[in-house]
C-alpha cells in the first residue's frame, strides 16, 4: 500500500508540474525555438558567410540589416562603402610611407587630399546593386553586389570623360583672365574626381587602374596659382572700420592666389560696401557689434559684375572694445567660410566673360 501511494504521489506531482507556469514557459520557449529554426532553415548562405552565388573572383559583396527593407538596403550600401574605404586607406598609407621615405615628409595639403580620397560615401558607389533580400520575421537583410568586370567599365568610362573635360578646360587660351582661372579651378575638381575613381578602380581591377593616367590635382592647382599670380585685382571698400573689411578681403584674394593691385585702372576689381554699428543692449549688460558686407567682382572690359555676395553677423561682449575685437574675428571667419565658398561656387559654375 505504501508503494501504491508513492506511485500515485509521483503521478500527481508530474501532473502538477506539467500544468505549472514554469513548464508552460519552457514549452513556449521550445515552440519559439522550433518556429525560429524553421525560419532559419530558409536563411540564405550570405547572412553569415560569403554568398556562393557571387564568388570573390568576379564579385564584391556586403550585407546589411535593419528593421525596414529600405534601411537594410542602405546599411548594405554603407557596409560596401566601408570595405572600399578600408582597402583604399591601406593602399594610401603604404603609398604615404613610400613618399615619406623618398622625400622625408608629406605636405599638409597632400595629406588632407589623401585622407579625403580614401573616404568612400555610399552615394559615390558605382555599379553596386541590391541583389537579394531576406526577412527573418524580425529584421530585413539585404545583399549588395558589384560585378567587378561591369563596374570596371563604368569607372573607366567616368575616368575617360573627366580626362576629356580636363583637356578641354586646359586648352582655353585667354591667359591672365578670371575665365582661364575658373576653367583650371573646374579642371582641378575633375582631377580630384579622377584620383578617387582610380583609387576605387584599383580595388576591383588593379591592372586596368595601373594602365590609366591623368594629371594630378596638384599639377593643375600649380597651373591655377600661376595664372592667378598674373591677374591683378583692385580692392576698394566703402565705410570700412579700422580696415576690418579690407584686411579680411585681402586675405580672401590671397587665398585664391590673386595679386592685389593699388591701381583702380585694373580690368578686375573687387568692390565692397561695409556697414558697421555698435550699441548697448536693451538690458544694458553687453555691447553688441553688427556688421555687413556686400561684395561685387567687376570686369571693366564688359562693365559688368561677374560675382556678388553679401554676408552679415554680430558679436557681443561686456566692453565695446572686446565686442569690436570679437566682431573682427567673426567677420574674418565669415569671409573665410561663407564668402570663400560662394566665390568657389561661382568659379565652378564657369565664368562667362
Layout of secondary structure:
Blueprint: H1 2-18, H2 21-41, E1 59-66, H3 69-103, H4 108-118, E2 128-135, E3 140-147, H5 148-170, H6 178-204, H7 206-211, H8 217-229, E4 232-238, H9 244-255, E5 259-261, E6 268-280, E7 287-299, E8 304-317, H10 320-348
Helix pairs in contact: 3-4, 5-6, 6-8, 9-10
Describe the fold and architecture.
With about 350 residues, this protein is of the alpha/beta class. The protein is about 55% helix and about 20% strand. The chain is built from 10 helices and 8 strands. It has helices at about 1-20, 20-40, 70-105, 110-120, 150-170, 180-205, 205-210, 215-230, 245-255, 320-350, and strands at about 60-65, 130-135, 140-145, 230-240, 260, 270-280, 285-300, 305-315. The strands form 2 sheets. The protein has a 5-stranded mixed beta sheet with strand order 5-4-6-7-8, with helices on one face. A hairpin with a 4-residue loop joins strand 2 (about 130-135) and strand 3 (about 140-145). Helix 3 (about 70-105) packs antiparallel against helix 4 (about 110-120) and helix 5 (about 150-170) runs antiparallel to helix 6. The protein starts with a helix and ends in a 5-residue tail after the last helix. The model is unreliable at about 1-20, about 20-25, about 30-40 and about 95-120 (pLDDT under 50).
Amino acid at each position: 500500500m505504501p508503494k501504491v501511494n508513492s506511485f500515485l504521489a509521483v503521478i500527481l506531482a508530474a501532473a502538477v508540474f506539467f500544468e505549472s507556469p514554469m513548464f508552460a514557459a519552457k514549452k513556449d520557449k521550445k515552440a519559439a525555438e522550433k518556429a525560429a529554426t524553421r525560419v532559419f532553415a530558409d536563411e540564405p548562405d550570405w547572412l553569415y558567410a560569403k554568398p556562393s552565388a557571387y564568388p570573390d573572383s568576379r564579385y564584391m559583396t556586403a550585407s546589411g540589416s535593419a528593421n525596414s527593407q529600405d534601411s537594410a538596403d542602405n546599411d548594405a550600401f554603407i557596409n560596401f562603402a566601408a570595405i572600399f574605404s578600408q582597402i583604399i586607406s591601406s593602399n594610401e598609407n603604404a603609398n604615404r610611407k613610400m613618399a615619406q621615405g623618398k622625400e622625408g615628409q608629406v605636405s599638409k595639403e597632400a595629406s588632407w587630399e589623401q585622407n579625403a580620397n580614401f573616404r568612400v560615401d555610399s552615394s559615390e558607389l558605382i555599379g553596386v546593386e541590391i541583389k537579394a533580400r531576406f526577412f527573418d520575421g524580425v529584421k530585413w537583410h539585404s545583399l549588395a553586389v558589384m560585378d567587378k568586370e561591369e563596374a570596371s567599365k563604368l569607372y573607366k568610362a567616368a575616368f575617360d570623360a573627366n580626362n576629356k573635360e580636363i583637356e578641354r578646360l586646359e586648352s582655353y587660351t585667354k591667359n591672365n583672365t578670371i575665365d582661364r582661372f575658373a576653367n583650371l579651378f573646374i579642371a582641378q575638381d575633375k582631377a580630384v574626381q579622377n584620383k578617387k575613381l582610380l583609387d576605387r578602380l584599383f580595388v576591383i581591377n588593379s591592372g586596368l587602374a595601373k594602365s590609366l593616367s591623368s594629371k594630378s590635382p596638384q599639377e593643375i592647382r600649380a597651373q591655377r596659382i600661376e595664372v592667378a599670380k598674373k591677374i591683378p585685382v583692385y580692392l576698394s571698400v566703402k565705410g570700412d572700420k579700422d580696415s576690418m573689411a579690407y584686411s579680411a578681403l585681402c586675405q580672401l584674394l590671397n587665398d585664391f592666389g590673386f595679386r592685389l593691385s593699388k591701381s583702380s585702372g585694373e580690368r578686375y576689381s573687387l568692390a565692397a560696401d561695409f556697414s558697421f554699428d555698435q550699441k548697448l543692449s536693451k538690458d544694458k549688460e553687453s555691447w553688441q557689434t553688427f556688421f555687413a558686407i556686400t561684395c561685387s567682382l567687376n570686369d571693366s572690359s564688359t562693365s559688368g559684375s561677374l560675382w556678388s555676395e553679401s554676408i552679415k553677423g554680430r558679436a557681443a561682449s561686456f566692453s565695446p572694445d572686446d565686442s569690436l575685437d570679437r566682431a573682427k574675428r567673426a567677420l574674418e571667419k565669415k569671409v573665410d567660410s561663407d564668402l570663400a565658398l560662394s566665390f568657389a561656387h561661382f568659379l565652378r559654375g564657369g565664368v562667362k566673360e
